[in-house]
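Handout, section B. The chain below has 70 residues.
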Amino acid sequence: MTVYQSSLGDEDEDEQIAGFEKILDIMVNPAIDMCMRENEEKKRLRLGWDEPVFVINCLSYFEVRDPTCL
């Protein structure tokens, strides 16, 4: 997000939001989809698969750690 912010020119707020949403669609959403697909596959293959822990671990990597980036 910091890199995106540093690349902004004179875009208005709506353009900035639209640009960042595009980044999320391209980068983050597919990664989350992959985590969920892998979870379903593991659940199918392994009895006793700890689904909640796997999902939380995957999603925690997407946590925003620097609130100034928002």
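Note. Residues 30-64 form one domain. Compare this with the example in section A.
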